[in-house]
Specification:
Blueprint: H1 3-39, H2 47-66, H3 71-82, H4 93-102, H5 108-128
C-alpha cells in the first residue's frame, strides 16, 4: 500500500469516526434529554444543545424522505475507493467494528419510518422537557418584573 493510499484510508476512518459521533449525538442526545429531564440536569434544557439536536435528526429525516445518501457515507466510500479498496467497508479493524454497530440490512422504508418516529420523539421532548431560554440580566437597582 502506498503512502497516498494510507492517507486516504486514514481519512476514510476519520470520516467514519465523525459519522459515528454524529449518530451517538443524535441517539444519545435524546436519551440524555429524557433522563436529564427526570433527573433535573440543567444542560438538557440548553437551547443551543436542543436546537443542534433537532437540526441533526431533522437532517437525517430529510435525507431519508428524499432518498439521499448521507454525505459522510458517500465521502467515506470515495476515500476507501481512492485507498484501493474494491468493495464497500473493507479495511481496518476500527472501520469493521464501527460499521457493524452503525450499518445493518433493512429496507429503506423501515429506516424512513424509524427516522421519522425518532424525529417526532425529539419534537415531543421539546414539549416534555422544554429548553430554558435565559432572560436578559436586569441592571442593578431596577424594579422591573
Amino acid at each position: 500500500m502506498t503512502s497516498g493510499q494510507r492517507i486516504y484510508l486514514l481519512l476514510a476512518d476519520v470520516t467514519l469516526i465523525v459519522h459515528f459521533s454524529f449518530v451517538v449525538f443524535v441517539v444519545g442526545g435524546l436519551v440524555c434529554i429524557w433522563v436529564g429531564g427526570l433527573c433535573r440536569w440543567r444542560f438538557v434544557r440548553n437551547p443551543w444543545f436542543r436546537v443542534a439536536h433537532l437540526v441533526a435528526i431533522g437532517f437525517v429525516c430529510l435525507e431519508a424522505l428524499t432518498g439521499t445518501i448521507c454525505p459522510l457515507t458517500h465521502w467515506e466510500d470515495e476515500l476507501r475507493l481512492l485507498a484501493g479498496g474494491e468493495q464497500r467497508y473493507q479495511g481496518s479493524f476500527m472501520q469493521h467494528w464501527l460499521h457493524q454497530v452503525m450499518f445493518f440490512e433493512a429496507g429503506a422504508g423501515l429506516f424512513t419510518v424509524a427516522y421519522a418516529a425518532f424525529f417526532i420523539a425529539v419534537l415531543l421532548s421539546l414539549w416534555l422537557v422544554p429548553p430554558r431560554w435565559r432572560r436578559p440580566e436586569q441592571p442593578a437597582g431596577t424594579n422591573q418584573p
